[in-house]
Design a protein that fits this description.
Elements (H helix, E strand, L loop, with lengths): L7 E6 L9 H13 L3 H4 L2 E6 L3 H7 L4 E3 L18 E4 L15 E5 L4 H4 L2 H17 L2 E4 L2 H10 L7 E3 L27 E5 L9 H7 L6 E5 L5 H12 L6 E5 L3 H10 L2 E4 L8 H7 L5 E4 L4 H5 L4 E3 L4 H17 L1 H14 L2 H17 L1
Parallel strand pairs: 1-2, 1-4, 2-3, 4-5, 5-6, 6-7, 8-9, 8-11, 9-10, 11-12, 12-13
Length: 366
C-alpha cells in the first residue's frame, strides 16, 4: 500500500462478510471486492475490513487490509479506540462501534424492516441503536429510494448529506455458458418456477406453494437455508396440499447451482413483503427470465416496467397473473429478454464502489 502525505485510512465494519449465504454477507463482499479494484484511490488511501474470512482474504489478494474485532467491542466500555480517518458502518445491524464520537462516520441504511419484524424490548433496543447511529453520522447512504423514503417516514434525519447508491448485480460478468449442471442438487424434469432467499416469513414463499395448486405441469424450486421455523411451515404446506412431487426446497446452494436455476427456470418469482433492494431480481434478469414480484416496498423500483406484479396474494389470482404474464412474455419474448438484460446491466458493483469513493472523499475533505 502506497503512503502519501494525504493518505487516509477508512475502516469498513463488515462483520457480516463471514456469512456469504446472507444478503448482508453478499453486499459486504461484493462492495469490498469492487473497492479493492479502485487502484487510484487505494494508492493514496487504505481500506481496512473487519474480516476474518480466509476465502475473502484470498479473493481480495492484498488490495485491502484486514482487522478483526471481537464481539465484546459492541459494549461501550470496550469500543474500538483505534483512530481511523473514516468509519463506515456498512450494515445498520452492526453493534461494533468506535469509541470516539468525533470520528467521521458513514452509515449505510438497507431498510427499517425491524419496525415490523420485532416488538417489545427488542424493538425499543433496535430503535434506540438506530437513532444513535443516525445521530453520530456524518452522512447517510441508502440502497434504494424506497429505503430513503421509509427511513424518513419513521425517523428524524439531521441536516447531513444523503445519497442513494444502488447495489450491483453479482452476475453481470457471468456468461450463460458458465453455468455448471453436474453439481446441482436437483435437476427438475418439468418446467419450473425458481425463487431464492432467506427462508423467513417476510419472503412470503408459502404463497407460491398455494399458487401452484392452480397451475398445471409446473414445478416450484425454492433455495435458501432450511433451519427456520418458517421452513417447517413450508414443509407442512407442501404436505397439506400433497405437492411433495412438485415443490423442491433446496436449502443453501452454491453460486454455480444458482446460475443453473436462473438460466433454466421457466420464470423467477419473488413475492417478498419487505425488501430494501431485492438483488435476486437483477440476478434473474441477467438471463432474460420473466420476473414476477410482489408490488411491495422496493421491488417495483428495482423490477421496473417489464416485470409482472402481484397486487395481492390470493392463490388463484396469483396464478392468473402468472399465466397472463407468461403469455405476454412469450408473445414479445425477444423484446422482454432484451429489456431484462439491459436493466440488469445498469446495476454494477463498479458503479457502487465509485459512488462510495466519492462519498468517502467528500467526508474526508470536509
Amino acid at each position: 500500500m502506497k503512503e502519501s502525505r494525504t493518505s487516509k485510512n477508512i475502516f469498513l465494519e463488515t462483520h457480516n462478510i463471514n456469512n456469504l449465504h446472507s444478503g448482508f454477507g453478499q453486499f459486504n463482499f461484493n462492495l469490498a471486492k469492487a473497492l479493492s479494484k479502485e487502484t487510484e484511490f487505494l494508492n493514496e488511501h487504505e481500506i481496512i475490513l473487519n474480516c476474518n474470512n480466509n476465502q475473502v482474504k484470498q479473493e481480495l489478494n492484498g488490495a485491502v487490509s484486514f482487522n478483526k474485532y471481537r464481539p465484546i467491542t459492541r459494549y461501550p466500555l470496550f469500543r474500538v479506540r483505534k483512530k481511523f480517518d473514516l468509519w463506515h458502518s456498512v450494515n445498520q445491524n452492526t453493534k461494533i462501534e468506535p469509541a470516539s464520537k468525533k470520528m467521521p462516520y458513514l452509515l449505510t441504511i438497507h431498510d427499517v424492516n425491524f419496525l415490523e419484524e420485532t416488538s417489545g424490548k427488542q424493538l425499543d433496543f433496535r430503535i434506540n441503536q438506530f437513532k444513535s447511529k443516525i445521530k453520530r453520522s456524518s452522512a447517510l447512504v441508502y440502497i434504494s429510494e424506497f429505503a430513503k423514503q421509509n427511513t424518513h417516514a419513521h425517523f428524524d434525519i439531521p441536516n447531513i448529506p444523503e445519497y442513494v447508491i444502488y447495489n450491483g448485480n453479482n452476475f453481470n460478468n457471468i456468461l450463460a455458458k458458465d453455468s455448471v449442471i453436474t453439481h446441482t442438487k436437483h435437476l427438475p424434469k418439468k418446467p419450473f418456477i425458481f425463487s431464492i432467499g432467506q427462508v423467513v416469513e417476510k419472503k412470503n414463499f408459502h404463497t407460491l406453494i398455494e399458487m401452484l395448486r392452480f397451475l398445471k405441469d409446473i414445478i416450484l424450486v425454492i433455495a435458501g437455508g432450511l433451519k427456520t421455523a418458517y421452513a417447517q411451515f413450508l414443509k407442512e404446506k407442501i404436505h397439506c396440499y400433497k405437492l411433495e412431487n412438485r415443490v423442491v426446497l433446496l436449502g443453501n446452494i452454491a453460486e454455480s447451482d444458482k446460475i443453473y436455476y436462473y438460466k433454466n427456470c421457466l420464470a423467477f418469482a419473488f413475492p417478498s413483503l419487505r425488501e430494501g433492494f431485492g438483488l435476486p431480481v437483477l440476478e434473474a434478469m441477467t438471463f432474460g427470465k420473466p420476473v414476477f414480484l410482489s408490488n411491495r416496498t422496493s421491488l417495483p423500483e428495482i423490477g421496473g416496467s417489464h416485470s409482472f406484479y402481484w397486487d395481492n396474494f390470493d392463490a388463484e389470482e396469483m396464478a392468473t397473473v402468472f399465466e397472463k404474464g407468461m403469455s405476454t412474455f412469450e408473445d414479445n419474448k425477444a423484446a422482454f429478454k432484451s429489456a431484462y438484460i439491459q436493466r440488469s446491466q445498469q446495476f454494477t458493483w463498479e458503479k457502487a464502489a465509485k459512488a462510495y469513493i466519492k462519498v468517502y472523499k467528500h467526508i474526508l475533505e470536509n
